[in-house]
Amino acid sequence: MSSSTLHTLICYDIIRRLPFVMGEKMPLIVGRHTSTDDNLNGVYSGQRDVPLNNVGRGEANALARTIAAQFGPDIVAILSSDLRRATYLASTLSSRLPGVPVTRTRDLREVSLGRIEQERLTWAQLTERYPGPKYQTRQEFDFTDVGGESKRQLIARGRRMMARVDAIFRQQPEPAMAYVVMISHGTFLRVLLQYYGLLSGELHPHGSFQIVLLPLRP
């Protein structure tokens, strides 16, 4: 596991019991799956169900140990994309947290690029073959004309997930002292966290996790 991953977890663990709990904030641990061969080769996977590579499996095993050791007693739920590169970590973490429910859902999948995914393009090839902002995931993308989804559609399923997270916290006697883990993908998390104003700058690399503080909905 990278030192940046450990640093992210440890830094947030230091402050996790500070008085932000007084503001009705819910601590959500969010992160990206670990490494795949597509990541190594710069290929955009989208919703193709690619597995982790050997490095990614090792990273996931180490990360599960770290999360369980630092947050285990307070984790009340694990939410994961149903794609294999995310469920491996969810299952590995769950094995260390008996009794903690795991939900695997399509709503946490990466953005769908439709037919483009089968071309297995790098970022440079995607830009060359499909020019224009609608095919760029860092802009107001819209892949519906090639069988994929738009940014608006991605945000809609992200909002469904946040409503589910809110419901989980509301079931807890002390919401600010419980943790929910969300395991997903780079573009999905970047768009979702930006939509809620919870991300400044770049998302952490693959396999890195961070804590975001969600306001308890009225």
Any overview of this molecule?
It is a single chain. The protein has 218 residues and is an alpha/beta fold. It has one domain: Rossmann fold. It contains seven helices and five strands; from the N terminus they run αβααβαβααβαβ. It has a five-stranded mixed β-sheet with strand order 3-2-4-1-5, with helices on both faces. The N terminus is likely disordered.
Oligomer category = single chain
Question: What CATH architecture label applies?
Answer: 3-Layer(aba) Sandwich
* Number of helical elements: 7
Look up the CATH topology: Rossmann fold
Kindly state the number of beta strands. 5
Number of domains: 1
Strand order of the largest sheet: 3-2-4-1-5
Question: Based on CA inertia axes, which overall geometry fits?
Answer: globular
Average pLDDT rating: 84
**What's the helix-strand series?**
HEHHEHEHHEHE
Write the layout of secondary structure elements.
Layout: H1 3-15, E1 25-32, H2 37-41, H3 54-71, E2 75-81, H4 84-94, E3 102-105, H5 123-129, H6 151-170, E4 179-184, H7 186-195, E5 209-215
Parallel strand pairs: 1-4, 2-3, 2-4
Antiparallel strand pairs: 1-5
Helix pairs in contact: 1-3, 3-4, 6-7
